[in-house]
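Tokens for chain A. Residues wanted.
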């Protein structure tokens, strides 16, 4: 069978590949600590699970409108008002099978072959893959630790061209944990104001996992409102990765385009998940805040340990649950068996010698780093940091 050429434009996400490799080694008996996947280790809060059970009993088991139940979209509109000060009507909101599908819908609805899409690096793996599927051209803007891996207005200004159609970023950021402040977003907004042909996808899936205070959205600037798509979802803040619900708020015509796309691909996401998500969005946020407090404790521990490891350079993540460690000072070194020439060698070395699974930074557009997820128990993190320190110290 000759497979379609479009498959050559994308590859399996490194995050999933590393988790798979870790599982294979585990099956062979190795004691692997998985720090590769972006998944809270907590259970979904009980009141959300109860709402799902009640929904099934009440018969919410049929197809729903493609864009999601109106009650759910109203709950999302209320949440956007309550938490973000953003005003959206329910026909400016679409619910999808995960934030990932929102992103796919939006990119495929906006990008024509040859259109330029700007993505600041480090970035989440799926953004560029989606642009490549849409046959767009990705223009990366490299950002480094000196600006906490955040994009500055001057770099953005220099990158925008007449061919630029779209800009995609996340705050809090996967993989760096960087959080844009209101002032930083305002500086970017000033640039976008001068370039009305550029649409913006603002991925805010880690909104609730924020260690510095209030989440800020670039959609708050009125001049940008008619071209910003806010993407968010249940996976991270409510520990609902397996339930598959994301949502997007944006201009009505984009929402309608996404509805058309989604209507052919998947229709709506699960009716039961949608009912449970109403309970999550309108219910008590204490479990979410408790999880975030735990992530903060783990962040402080992991970053503290990484800072103690000679040769590792690390920023302080202000959100999400990843440490993005620069390990390039080890390139060219060896433990006597394995030579570390790049980030992939490092993640493989850590997997095979320390039995910790991480993801190489190239997958996120930075070849000097590895991503370490701290969304796992303190016990596992403590053991993982001991093993990592030992493995790095053995490199001469
Ligand atoms: C930055 C970012 N956006 C979107 C997603 C996708 O989330 P969902 O599970 O809702 O598809 C992820 C998941 O890892 C993510 O890290």
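Reply:
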């Amino acid at each position: 069978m000759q497979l379609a050429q479009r498959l050559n434009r994308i590859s399996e996400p490194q995050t999933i590949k590393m988790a798979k490799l870790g599982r294979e080694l585990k099956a062979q008996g190795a004691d692997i600590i998985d720090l590769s996947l972006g998944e809270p280790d907590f259970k979904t809060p009980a009141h959300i699970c109860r709402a799902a059970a009640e929904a099934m009993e009440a018969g919410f088991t049929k197809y729903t409108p493609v864009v999601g139940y109106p009650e759910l979209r109203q709950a999302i509109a209320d949440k956007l008002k309550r938490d973000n000060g953003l005003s959206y009507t329910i026909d400016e909101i679409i619910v999808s099978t995960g934030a990932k599908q929102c992103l796919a819908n939006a990119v495929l609805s906006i990008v024509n072959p040859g259109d330029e899409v700007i993505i600041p690096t480090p970035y989440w793996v799926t953004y560029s893959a989606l642009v490549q599927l849409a046959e767009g051209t990705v223009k990366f803007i490299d950002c480094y630790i000196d600006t906490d891996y955040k994009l500055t207005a001057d770099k953005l200004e220099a990158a925008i061209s007449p061919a630029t159609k779209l800009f995609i970023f996340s705050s809090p950021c996967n993989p760096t944990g960087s959080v844009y402040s209101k002032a930083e977003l305002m500086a970017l907004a000033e640039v976008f104001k001068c370039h009305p042909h550029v649409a913006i996808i603002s991925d805010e899936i880690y909104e609730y996992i924020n260690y510095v205070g209030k989440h800020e959205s670039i959609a708050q600037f009125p001049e940008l409102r008619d071209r910003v798509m806010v993407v968010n979802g249940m996976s991270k803040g409510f520990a609902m990765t397996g339930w598959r619900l994301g949502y997007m708020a944006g201009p009505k015509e984009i929402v309608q385009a996404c509805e058309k796309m989604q209507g052919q691909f998947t229709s709506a996401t699960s009716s039961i998940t949608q009912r449970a998500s109403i309970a999550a969005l309108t219910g008590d946020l204490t479990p979410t805040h408790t999880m975030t407090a735990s992530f903060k404790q783990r962040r402080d521990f992991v970053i503290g340990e990484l800072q103690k490891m000679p040769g590792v350079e690390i920023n302080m993540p202000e959100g999400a649950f990843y440490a993005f460690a620069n390990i390039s000072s080890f390139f060219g070194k060896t433990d006597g068996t394995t030579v570390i020439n790049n980030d992939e060698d490092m993640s493989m070395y850590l997997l095979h010698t320390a039995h910790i699974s991480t993801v190489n930074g190239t997958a996120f557009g930075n070849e000097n780093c590895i991503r370490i997820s701290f969304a796992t128990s303190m016990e596992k993190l403590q053991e993982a940091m001991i093993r990592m320190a030992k493995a790095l110290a053995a490199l001469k």
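The domain at 5-43+287-393 is CATH 3.90.1150.10 (Aspartate Aminotransferase, domain 1). The first helix runs from residue 14 to 27.
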